[in-house]
Amino acid sequence: MDGEKADRLPTAGDAPASQPSRRQVLYGAGAGLGLAALGPVLGRGHHPAGGTGRVTARADADRCLDFGQDWKFVLVNPNGTNDPTGAYTNAYKPGFDDSNWQVLDVPHDWAIHLTPVDLPNTSSATGFLQTGLAWYRKHFTLPPSLAGQRISIEFDGIYMNSTVWLNGQLLGNHPYAYTGYNFDVTDLVHADGGTDNVLAVQVPSAQPSSRWYSGSGIFRNVYLVVTGPVHVARHGTFVTTPDLAANLRSGFAAVQVQTDVENDGSSAASVTVAVTITDPHGRTAGHAHREQPRPLVHHQPEQVQPDDRAVGGGHRGGRHHDRLRHQVCQLRPRQRLLAQRPALEAPGR
After folding, report:
1. DSSP 89
2. Rounded to an integer, what distance in angstroms lies between the CA atom of residue 93 and that of residue 167?
3. Sorting pLDDT into bands at 50, 70 and 90, what band is 320?
4. Could you read off the pLDDT of 170-209 as tens digits, one per residue?
5. What confidence tens digit (pLDDT) does each residue in 46-78 have?
6. Residue 77, CA distances (Å) to 9, 84, 112, 134 in order
7. Residue 135 neighbours by CB under 8 Å, 6+ apart
8. Which domains does the chain have, with CATH numbers?
């Protein structure tokens, strides 16, 4: 069999279709994939032979583990968002047989692998590529060392109307494709080093849906997020640079950091937030910390602002990293000047 055809997903070959002209076909550019190591705490299945490496959007190894490798995939129906035979009705259940599904890494776009066809459910805006209904499943085990930790699954984006289950339990539905979302799975996941966990994602991708090529599937990164019971909240670091333009003229930048800290434990805890900024060479450019004036109690978020010139963001039990950059934009008649560079350098540079 031809190698290129062997890697191609099945299409609606039984339906009569005419091929559009080259002028009509809209080509989509796929994201480059490079290699990133999966954290050693995760049990892994077989990696597809000959698969290329991948690169993740963030490298926050203390908190976010790349969860993009060794997924199972099946395209149920490229012609619509229904399951015509009902064969995949129970695909969310852990015991469902996915042994013949394709093994791949995400991010993944199933539509780009299909042959462009001129059908009522395709259009020039999406390259005459079909979309339809697909399932993804991932098997994984977690070690006992993660028992007692807070564990969540983070999706950066799924096109387009995804529903997610873990171990047969419905986690939720996210109907918008371009925003990330997460689920706290602490009480559902097995962390005994041996019991198989099964994450199942149903993805219907309907047409028409966009004025440009959108792709279909888990087209952005997925992470396993592990923190202690006391942790920086999701998107919990808010960084501002007041009076930036004036400060830069004086040779420094004032950075303010506000951090939301959550306690999901069973007892109150004393909290110290330490924040650090480093320059592009890894040297410390500033540091500050502050102790929470009163114990942080269960399920009561607190905002902590170390001081008026705090720099950076972090926490023990899983550091939280944010890259800080600044943009200075000046608008002048008939022109625009945009300069971008690292926000802060070490003293003396």
Report:
1. T
2. 7
3. low
4. 999 999 999 999 999 999 999 999 999 999 999 999 988 8
5. 443 334 444 433 434 468 999 999 999 999 999
6. 11, 8, 15, 7
7. 73, 74, 76, 88, 91, 101, 200, 201, 202, 203
8. 1-227 (2.60.120.260), 230-342 (2.60.40.10)
